[in-house]
Amino acid sequence: MFLRCLSVPSIFCSHLTKSAIRKLTMKILNVAEKNDAAKNIAEILSRGGSRRREGLSKFNKIYEFHMNLNGQNAIMLMTSVSGHLTNYDFLTNYKSWHSCDPMVLFDAPIAKHVLKDYEPIKQTLQREIRGCQKLIIWTDCDREGENIGVEVIDACREVSPNIEVLRARFSEITPSAIHRAINQLTTPDYNASAAVDVRQELDLRIGAAFTRFQTLRLRRVFPRALSDQLISYGSCQFPTLGFVVERFREVDRFVPEPFWRIVVTVSRNEKSTEFNWQRGRLFDQDCCRAYYEHLCQNRYGQIVEINKRPKSKWRPTPLDTVELEKLASRKLRMGAKYAMQLAERLYTKGFISYPRTETNIFPPDMDLKSLVRIQTEDSRWSGFASRILERGPNPRNGKSTDKAHPPIHPLKTGGQLQGDEARLYELVARHFLACLSADAEGAETIVRLCVGKPSLPRTTPTNSSQLLTSEDGEMFESKGLMILAPNYLEIYIYDRWTEKDMPIFQLGEWILPNNIEMVTGQTSPPPLLTEADLISLMDRHGIGTDATHAEHIETIKQRLYVGLEQNKFLVPGQLGMGLVEGYDSMGFDMSKPNLRSQFEADLKLICEGRRQKTVEVLRYHLSKYKELFRIAIQQASLLDRALAIRLEQEAENVRNISGSVGEMASFSSNINNNTASTGSSSQGNTGSASFIASCPACRSDLVLRQKRSALRPITTGSNQSDNYGSMEIGQTNNGGWFLSCSSYPNCRYAIWFPDSVVHVRILPESNATTCSQCTNYISPSVIHSSNRSGPSKLGLRFRRNFHLPNGYFQDDDNKEYITCIFCDEDFCRILGIRIPPVPPTPTPTPTPASVNNNNSTNNSSHSTNPFGTRTNQSRQMITDQSVPTFQQTRSLSTLAPPPLSHTSAFSSLSTMNNDNYEPFSPNSLSNISGNSTSRSFPSVSSTNFRSPPRTQSIDNEHDSDSNNNVLCNCGQPAIQLTVRKPGPNQGRLFYRCSGSTGNTCDFFLWKTSATSLMDTNPPLYSSTQVPQRNNDTDIWSRPTNTFSSVNLTNDRLVTSGLGTSESTSSGVVCRCGEPAKLWLGS
């Protein structure tokens, strides 16, 4: 019986063996945030022994390896996602922009769904989780990383509801950090994830509502400027834009105030030392002059104080995210978003610690010596790192910590890095070593001089009681500096501390200054914001987080609400400025940081567990934005008016706004006192300087306009060019100038200038500034009412270094070319400007008298224009071809203004005065050779002017070097090159500017064998926009994914500013996306 009890069936033995094996071996799915992170973590945990296999997503691999986890054997599967796996969105009934009133979006049902491109990632997770006992989350340890981790958990629990979930927390991908994380697994932070859900829902609802409202309304109200523009709104991007606008207003409204100060100069040992007045600056010139005259009469002074003291320059504190973004912007000239992308790459490669941290304090238990010892292997600073090890790391800590990640620091040497990655790594490494070093030490000497005695005293003072005081004269001070120990400055090349020599002075010594001068100056405005300044403001006011600052700045740049001036300063565009002004006029604080900063504060409370009811937080903040939205809809006319002024365009297709832009001048003055300088003139103002000519189509006035893009930045007044230089935001200098009928849109007659023309003005009316030969462009009523003899002449300014074959050379930004464009046929032909033909007037039934008159007209070489006046045929603008009637031409794109060009979105407009410059006109060429003027211009025969070559055809059967037939935008022959890089274009020939590096234009043109165009006329070599008309209701919108066409007229390629009626697609575009312009000679 005893033996029978001991016997066990073999089936039970087999079962126990398998069960024991299952208990001893676990299967664990590990999920990282990115594939690179998964690869590196697997490499560390497997000690290089992981096996890679493919997942359902080709971008997210699976790494399999065995390891011992807490005493148990485990099969580890490591894979990844690619950021957020899911996203909030409205249900199908609300997704269409026209499906509902935007107000409904504040309460419309939403749901989280997997992004379409990420479905394979979710399928991989659900396939691999089957059979696993645990799930370990390895996403980034910040708020967004926690939310991504919860998204992974939700996807896995759809298949394995009871899966055990653990969280690995780490700040760097190094062996020590990863092994510490796997041995100290914890639970996910669901509070941080809930805060992200609240933020995502609020951003979705208010962003969708305001964006749909703004875009749909403003596209309809301003179809000429905003027909294809996405006008987005975000609760972070709008306050970010508000900071830029507010600083711009400060600069624009700043009124310089003159001041005066007194400087005393003392020379000793061939060195001059300046002593500054301790009274500083006086804003009363008479008062300062009284002091100055007194000192000139009492020039002797005495050294009354010599103070020597140690001086230190503090080393930096440890590096957090905000400081990294600011340093990368200021020192490396990198955009904040680009810098963070580089930092993320360096982090995933294991070169630096986690780059998104609010901590600038090194933890007490952090092994800094080991990190410094690694840097001794880098030859660039090995000696400096060795000296730190000798005396021990001595960090200068900051004041903040997020208790999650340490400050950003290097983890290994970066000698193998290249490009911008190497530059950013070097910044991190140098900053790390600098903050562990010592402050720079120096000695400062302060010498005070009292001036106010008419002569030297008879006896020299022997003690301090006989020294002069402030009652005896005026006190002046000078400082000298000697650096004794640079310390951290040896490694930190981004800081400067300049020595200033100070001659040796003796206390009580009497001085006769070499010079006493009253210096004048004026107060200066604050500088425009840089990205670093903007990040500081966002951080100070709680807009976004350290992880999102760069994203918000990039968003307003991509939306073209702001642009960069001198590739450094942020300036608002016309659209961005108009939006802020419109909402400000409603009494809103939407451009202020208050609303968003309160919301961010509540999100922090949710993360800390101090606000549990996330639904209440969301409902509270949504209600505030919903009320603002309701008022914005009611007062939308104020937004229309603000943008009408900024865009210099009439508001169209709305009933709740009346009056023209000119009638809104009072509103403009309330906004910013910044009304437009180039407006429109209406019929009847023909006696003013704004009249040019009469419209040949409808007899209204032709007026000068500039297509003022909604995306073009604003200048800060006449002194802007002095303070900040020229605008560099659109990569072009296209002014978008054109003549149009004042009766638009009823009449769409227009004449466009090419983008080589940067400014146009109408000359004041006089006999010398009107053209008496072009009477066919003046209606009889105008001649009768104003006694004008012809249309007004124009003054045009071109791009710098632009020249015309007649000898005009734009060597000065303020020099003008004076001409009448209606009869200067050479000028129009050279620039590719086509004057739309004058439609013939209905011919009355002829009578015998009228037949005789017509015959006599023809015999005397005159013709009758539409207004019934006579003009000489040599100046007539109608060609021999058949001329369509006005009704016909309205259907052609020749009368449509050009589409909005994103490449010239931020065009530059010079507003300098021309009073000091003598205008140039074609008729003044005879004076050039005779040197009758004070200024000279290159003549036609000058070596500075190269006449454009003439050609019969262009092909790609032979190379053309200096004798090629294509001119670039500089007006010079382009060079022909061949594509060598492997790809679809390898072997193709193309043209580019022949200028030297750094002095080239952006011209680009493919050379095609199908191009063989012959002409004997003078050449075209302008860079001109070619407009294209989409439809009858929206003629100024930009075509999407289409190229503008060209005209083939008399076998000649015409790239005019007026489009075409019989077009063929060239398919040739320059790098900016606009049609390339081809010069053809005869």
TrEMBL record:
Region (Disordered): 388-415, 839-960
Domain annotation Toprim: ranges: 27-171
Enzyme class: isomerase
Matching SUPFAM superfamilies: Prokaryotic type I DNA topoisomerase
Bias type Polar residues, positions: 867-894, 901-931, 943-954
Compositional bias segments (type: Low complexity): 848-866, 932-942
Record-listed E.C. numbers: 5.6.2.1
Substrates-to-products reaction catalysed: ATP-independent breakage of single-stranded DNA, followed by passage and rejoining
Alphabetically ordered keywords of this record: DNA-binding, Isomerase, Metal-binding, Repeat, Topoisomerase, Zinc, Zinc-finger
Domain Topo IA-type catalytic: 189-629
An example Gene Ontology CC term for this record: RecQ family helicase-topoisomerase III complex
Residue stretches making up the GRF-type domain: 968-1010
Residue stretches spanning the membrane: none
GO biological process, one term: DNA repair
Annotated GO MF terms: DNA binding; DNA topoisomerase type I (single strand cut, ATP-independent) activity; zinc ion binding
Gene3D superfamilies, alphabetized: 3.40.50.140, Topoisomerase I, domain 2, Topoisomerase I, domain 3, Topoisomerase I, domain 4
Family to which the UniProt record says this protein belongs: Belongs to the type IA topoisomerase family.
Function: Introduces a single-strand break via transesterification at a target site in duplex DNA. Releases the supercoiling and torsional tension of DNA introduced during the DNA replication and transcription by transiently cleaving and rejoining one strand of the DNA duplex. The scissile phosphodiester is attacked by the catalytic tyrosine of the enzyme, resulting in the formation of a DNA-(5'-phosphotyrosyl)-enzyme intermediate and the expulsion of a 3'-OH DNA strand.
Name by which UniProt lists this protein: DNA topoisomerase
